[in-house]
Amino acid sequence: MHGCKFPRWIGFLSVALAFILGLSAGILHIIRRPPEIVVVYRSGWIQDIRIPQDCILCEDASVEPFTNTGYAQEIHHVPSGTTFVFIPAGQFLMGSDGDEIGHESDEEPKHRVTITHPFYLAKHEVTMGQWQSQYGEGDHREMSVPQSDASKSEDESAIPLEVHWDEAWDFCQRYRLRLPSEAEWEYACRAGTTSSYCFGDDQDDLSDYAWYGEDSSVPPHQVCSKTPNAWGLFDMHGNVAEWCFDSYASDYSTSRGDGRAVTDHGISPRLCFVIRGGARHSCATSCRSASRGCEYRWSGAGFRPAFTVEQ
Fold it and tell me: Of 218, 253, 282, 292, which residue has the fewest beta carbons closer than 10 angstroms?
């Protein structure tokens, strides 16, 4: 029996469509984790705290202080070995205008975004120790991970990982997590602020929150070694740049007002994905909350997973 032969272009189209549908499924069909209720007894008082599935309460963690959801402010996701911080739903102004020092045209127009659902975002970037504990020492995916000459005074297992976008996405999908949208990332980075950085506009204070301005040969630094932002997130500025789910556009004319990722810029064999936060070798203005970048097959960015929860 002779098999049916199809034109070669049908195969290419199928791959492209599968890629786009796969991206869309990661953010448009969000898997929300139903919560479990735990009763906590501390110092003579009792408190009910909602905890997402597959998670445990971090030591001394309490109910998130922003809204009345009852979720824990900080939890540990057991399967992935990741500690997460609660991010409330809300509104913010995304981008920057010409009055901000370091402003770039791809940060326009400044626009209001509504984050419609609360979510959890990793407290810090995924570390080399996490990656190795989940994939094992011999996994082929370690091939793209640079063998860092991390400072001998730092614990290499706590050094943030730098990988390709698809490797970051693979890690997230393995544990039913996802990458944050670009809007979610900036919203969490700002933590309620409207300034250039999560702490204000004064660049002189940036060194308290970020590793930046270093020589390109300097390896990443240990996570959580600087001051966190007001929502308890570390290293949102500097150290390693971070992958977002969105494909890059040169401005915000196609952005959505609900915080969802923008992935519909057409089929491209070299789709460029958004990176945020700047890195240890970036200048101060490239570490701003609104600063944007993009890369494709670049192994110089880290990532922090996210997941959405029921309200």
Answer: 253
